[in-house]
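Can't paste images in this forum, so I'm doing it all in text. The chain is below; anyone willing to post the predicted structure tokens underneath?
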Amino acid sequence: MGTFNYQFSAVALLLLIIAESSSNINHDKSSLLTLKSHITSDPYNLLTNNWTIETSVCSWIGVTCHYGNNRVIKLDISHMGLQGTIPPEIGNLSSLVSLNMSENLFHGLLPTSIFNMSSLQVLSFKNNSLSGSLPKDMCSGHSNLSRWLRVFRLSYNKFDGEIPSSLGQCSHLEYISLAHNNFVGNMPGGIGNLSSLVTLFMYENLLHGPVPTSIFNISSLQVVSFSNNSLSGNLPLDLCSHNTLPKLRKLYLAYNKFDGETPSSLGQCSQLELIDLSGNGFLGNVPDGIGNLSSLVNLYMSDNFLHGPIPTSIFNISSLQIVTFWNNSLSGNLPVDLCSHNTLPKLKRLYLTFNNFDGEIPSSLGQCSQLEWISISDNGFVGNVPSEIGNLSSLMRIFMYNNLLHGPIPSTIGNLSELSYLDLHSNKLRGEIPPSLCNLRSLKYLHLSHNSLEGSIPHCLGNFSRFLLLLHLKENLFHGLIPTTFTEGCLLKSFNLNGNKLEGALPKSLVHCRNLQVLDVGNNEIEDTFPIWMENLPFLRVLVLRSNRFNGTILLDSNTTTVPFPSLQVFDISHNEFTDSLPARYLENFVSMINVKENKAEQGNWFLYYQESMEFVLKGVELSIARILITFTTIDMSDNRFSGAIP
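Text version of the structure:
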């Protein structure tokens, strides 16, 4: 009898467990079906066809159940393009360990019930449109979330308000990403208590004030990103002293309001691979200790107030790939042996523009065999452009404008088959454009203005118009004819030959350049009639023919019904020999001048991303403007032989 009672009790207990398990899984199923009902768009029908009442919840896409208790422990419906809101019933998934709904289009508030889930370790809603503020007590002592949460990812949403100070009480946190939201206020000091924290992303918010120094004492930290906020104050002088950040690999502090000197102790964070301090108010010298960082790959210190020379030890870090110091007040010469002895075997990009460097460009630069981008403009470099640059087979962009360079353009540049940008304007270069430049079949941007280059313009540059976007040879000593080889499919957007000694006619093959927005051939010796064939170029904004020998009547086709020069905003034909009546049809139909407005969203407007300059006459005084605004308009037809009535 006793055995029977025992067996009966065991069976009853088993049935009770099964019934409770069935009840729990049905509860989970109900919660997920409620979530499904709040989804308004399921573009791939992933949940529509799979999450059905008839099937087991544990077989649903994105759902993982525990083998033992048959409860939902993981929900991953990321990257499904789902749209809708998140109902509070999701908080009823009481056994959930991981919740990932990232990379969708969920909007509205995040239910507070989520922050009461007692088993949750991973919470990820990255890249949605969720909004509202986080609960102040989300990780406080009585919160269930504080028990196990390791990963907290809410980046790329629309959350606002302050970051809860209680976040520092989720003591198991290893990964926090609140980036690209609208969080305001100070960085919570309690984050410094998270002794297991490895990754901290807070970039692109509205945070202000200093960074709590306790954060820089978390020995487990590997990645810190606070870029693009309004954080301020000095960095701790002992930032990396006493082995406080032994694992730190990446430090992003760019575009804030930090100031003071860059801590010399930064060189003691021996594992650093990336430093980005750009766009702050750091001053003083570049710390010598950075040269000790043997694992450093990327070094960004642009747009600060740094002065003095760059420590030569930095140019001995063999792992370096990107070095950028543009827009500081750094000075001195570059090391003569900059790339000698394989010291920078991986260097790809060197940005030193807008500083006070001087001396010659080291010929050893040609030994940085992986270089793709050289930007050393707006300095005081002298001497020749090193011919050894022609050895850099991976080089794509050369920016050396606004220096004091002289001598010829090296013919070896023609060896650079990957070169797409060559900008040497505003130097003292002499000689002819080397014929070898005709080998540059990837060239998109050629800017050689404001030098003393001479000879004729190579006709191959007209052939380049199939891939050239910009060709500027302004203010040189070129003579002869303008190339006539602009072919069908011409992509040229800006063509500036102002201030040379060019002659002959304006080539009619330019009509093939349907994307042309700027044509400036002013101040030459061109002899031709008015290029009426250009009036149908749909995007032409600037037409400058001033100070040439254009002549004759500006003949107009009275039968045409199309609007001439539909995008023109600068029309300068002054100081020529045009005769007869003023071109009334043009003056009455310059629609872009009549309806001028600043529209920064206007598609294809060259002036939105390239700084065009020009000279114009105002009340008899010639003025120069460094940039043509998209609202700028002018008409100048002075000093011709027009007659008759003014339209």
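Residues 241 and 265 are 6 Å apart (CA to CA). Confidence is low (pLDDT under 50) at residues 1-21.
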